[in-house]
Every structure is written in C-alpha cells, then in structure tokens.
C-alpha cells in the first residue's frame, strides 16, 4: 500500500460495502479481510479464538515455504508478535516492567537531548531538507539503539536492515526481487544479534540488551532463537513505526494548519497530539490471525483453521467508533484508537513511542518559525509497516 489517499479510499469502501471479504490471490494463501473497528477489537481481545500462529503477517506463499524450511515455522523468527499464550505471556514479562510509564519517563532527558540534536541538524541544513530521510528515520533510531546498546557507528546498518525487512515490496528499500533476499535479511539480523547476546552475557551493562541476553524464563536461560527474535522486533518496530508517525504527523500538521497553530500556541497539547498522530498514521497496517473454531462476522462464516487480516488504519478511520475520523484533531480523546493493537498483544513500546513524538514536536515547534512542503511526499510500498519514504520541506528558524 503505497499511497495514503488510495489506501483510505479502499478501506472506506470495504467498511461500508464488504467489511468481511475473502481474498484469494495466486501469490498468497487465501485469507479474510476485516476493516471495521468493532471486528478488529473483537479479534484482538480474543487471543484463544484467534491465534497468531501459524500466520502473523501477510507474506507470499513461496517465502512462507522457505521460512518453514529454515526455522520450522511459516513466520520465520518467532518474535513477541508471532507468539501465542502461554509462551507470549512469559516472554512479554521479561521486559514488561522496563517499558512501563515510570521507567520510560526517566528517559526524558536523553530523548530531549536527541530531539534537540536533530532539530539542530535541520537548522544547520539551511532551510531545506528531506524530513523523512534526514530527521524522522534517524531520530527514533538513535533512541532505540541507545536503549538497546547498539553503537552509533552501526545505526545505518540497522536502518538498512529494517527497511529491507519492512519495506521488502518497495523497489527503493527491498534488498532484491528474489524470494531468498528476504531470508538473507533475517539471517543478517540473526548473525548481528547473536554477537550482541554473547557480548552482554560476558560483559553485562545497564542496557536493554543485557536484560534480554541474561533473561530467565521458567527457571532457565531464554532460548537463543527467542532472544534473537526479541532483539529483532525491539530494534525494528522500536524505531520504524515511530519514524513513520513522526513524518506522517508533521504532514498532518501541514495538511491541517489550524492544528499546527493550536499546537504551537499550546505545547501542553503535545501528548494528545502525539496520540492523534499515531491514530492518523497507524503505521502497523495489519496483523494476521487464525481461527481456532468457526466464527461469524456480519453473516460471513470464517471456518476453523482459516486466516484473517485485521487492518488498523481502517479501524482507526471507522466513523462507527470514532467521531469525524478523517479530521486530524490534536484535542481528540484517543482512548478508542487501535494503532497499538488491543488486548494481550497491545504494543509494549507504546509509552516510549508517545514520549518520543511528544518531545520532538515540543522541541521543533518551540524553535521553528514556519515550515511547508517543498515537493510532493512519496510513500513506502509496504503491507506490514508503512509510511512516508520522502517528504522534502522548507522552513525557517526564529
């Protein structure tokens, strides 16, 4: 899905006319598509009826076969988003306390310093930059890499691998056109984090990598494949989704200038604005679930063993659940939005994501005089995590 306008036009049509539709494509195993808020919420909160395995995200059949051969599962590396209970609950508990609001709040000075660093960069660039490539991709990357313990010299490598993983369908970001290229990306991640695990076991520090490398589950050290998978989802989802929201959030402010003026005049609205940006962008496009028994949605029977995809951008623009959903409103009460998921698999890093976005826009709008688009934005062609890949802007500092 490479364009915001066409994506939402499609979802608007499906919610109103085909809220539960069967998709049979020659390159993919068939699955059902759900687009209404009530259905996405119901699936998300019933984790025994709708399980994550064996299909968690939409990937081509041929790639699923390769993953099965290499890792013994059609998902490949089994991260938290792929797991079902009781394993999911046990492994989630390893970092649950680390990602609670109070510990995350203690990161505020570090995040503020990094936000100023990238706003300094914008100022030094002389009034014009590609906001996505020069700022939005790098700001949350620096934060999550610092949290994990990856040195700055390796950030670009981690960014490249993340783009290859999440943007594999995009000609500018994918590693190549062959099915095996996706496998190569996973194996490169595995090799890198395998070394990180070994280092933190031998040289523990106070970073998140040390927590994961030395984690105990059911009285024994966490299995290596689980550790590597944990690192991968933390390192990739920990910055790519926030990058997409930072750039998409700025675009929303430019598209709704009265909201930009309101936020500039009321910095205390930055937290609510960050949450509205997350709803607006909904960077995680979908998740797959498999039914453990027959279930009915709007007259359609989805059989036991069949898969369905729940679409978060569609749920977050559903007027049945959200008032005037196509309006960007930084004062909106966003307790009903679904961008972080819902239920047992709600995003662990949600408090960190909100804080990063809140702080960045507080810093940017306190220092910048004006900002506008300098060219038409471009979108990543991706089905799992999506957003802008280019947004040239012009601006002036006070």
TrEMBL record:
Keyword entries, A-Z: Heme, Iron, Metal-binding, Monooxygenase, Oxidoreductase
Q: Does Nucleotidyltransferase count among this protein's keywords?
A: no
The coiled-coil regions, if any, are none
InterPro entries assigned? Cyt_P450, Cyt_P450_B, Cyt_P450_CS, Cyt_P450_sf
Fetch the CDD domains from UniProt.
Answer: CYP142-like (cd11033)
The superkingdom listed in its UniProt entry is Bacteria
The entry's family comment says: Belongs to the cytochrome P450 family.
Q: What is this protein called?
A: Cytochrome P450
**Which species does this protein come from?**
Candidatus Seongchinamella marina
Q: What is the lineage of its organism?
A: Bacteria, Pseudomonadati, Pseudomonadota, Gammaproteobacteria, Cellvibrionales
């Amino acid at each position: 899905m490479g364009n915001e306008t066409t994506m939402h036009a499609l979802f608007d049509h499906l919610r109103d006319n085909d809220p539960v539709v069967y998709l049979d494509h020659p390159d993919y195993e068939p699955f059902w598509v759900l687009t209404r808020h009530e259905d996405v919420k119901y699936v998300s909160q019933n984790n025994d009826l709708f399980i994550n395995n064996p299909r968690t995200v939409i990937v081509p059949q041929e790639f699923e076969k390769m993953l099965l051969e290499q890792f013994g599962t059609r998902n490949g590396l089994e991260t938290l988003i792929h797991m079902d209970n009781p394993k999911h609950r046990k492994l989630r508990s390893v970092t649950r306390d680390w990602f609670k609001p109070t510990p995350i709040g203690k990161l505020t000075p570090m995040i503020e310093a990094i936000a100023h660093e990238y706003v300094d960069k914008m100022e030094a660039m002389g009034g014009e930059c590609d906001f996505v490539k020069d700022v939005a991709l790098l700001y949350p990357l620096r934060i999550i890499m610092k949290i994990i313990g990856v040195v700055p010299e390796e950030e670009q490598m981690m960014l490249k691998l993340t783009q290859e993983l999440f943007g594999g369908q995009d000609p500018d970001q994918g590693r190549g056109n062959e099915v095996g290229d996706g496998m190569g990306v996973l194996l490169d991640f595995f090799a890198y984090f395998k070394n990180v695990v070994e280092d933190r076991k031998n040289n523990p520090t106070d970073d998140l990598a040390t927590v994961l490398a030395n984690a105990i589950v059911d009285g024994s050290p966490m299995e290596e494949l689980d550790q590597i998978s944990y690192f991968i989802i933390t390192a990739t989802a920990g910055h790519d989704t926030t990058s997409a929201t930072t750039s998409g959030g700025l675009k929303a402010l430019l598209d709704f200038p009265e909201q930009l003026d309101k936020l500039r005049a009321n910095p205390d609205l930055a937290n609510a604005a960050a949450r509205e940006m997350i709803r607006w962008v909904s960077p995680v496009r979908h998740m797959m679930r498999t039914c453990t028994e027959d279930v009915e949605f709007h007259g359609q029977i989805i059989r036991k063993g069949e898969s369905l995809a729940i679409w978060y951008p569609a749920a977050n623009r559903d007027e049945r659940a959200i008032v005037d959903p196509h309006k960007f409103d930084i004062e909106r009460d966003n307790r009903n939005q679904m961008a972080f998921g819902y239920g047992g698999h709600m995003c662990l890093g949600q408090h960190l994501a909100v804080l990063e976005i809140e702080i960045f826009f507080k810093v940017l709008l306190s220092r910048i005089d004006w900002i506008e688009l300098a060219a038409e934005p471009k979108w990543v062609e991706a089905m799992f995590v999506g957003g802008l890949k280019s947004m040239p802007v012009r601006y002036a500092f006070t």
